[in-house]
Amino acid sequence: MKGSKKYKLISILCIVFCVLIWVPNVVFEVASPFWIATFVIATIGIVFAALIKNYLLIIANTIMFFSFFILMGIGNIINANF
C-alpha cells in the first residue's frame, strides 16, 4: 500500500512537470527545446500509473505524451483560419 502512494505521487508529478515544460513555449512564446523531455517524463508517468492501475493518470500522462502533436494540430487550425 505504501508503494502505491509513491507511485501515484510520481505519476502526478510527471503530469505537472510536463505542463511546466510547455509554459515557456506556449505562454511566453520562447522557443525552448525542453518540450522533448515530455516524451520521457510522460512515459515514466504512464508506467507508474499503470503499476497502480489508475486509469485517469494513465490517460492524463498519455495526453501529455502526445501534447506536442495536439498543440501542433491546434496551432495549424488556428493559423489556417487567419
From TrEMBL:
- Domain of life here? Bacteria
Protein's name in the database: Uncharacterized protein
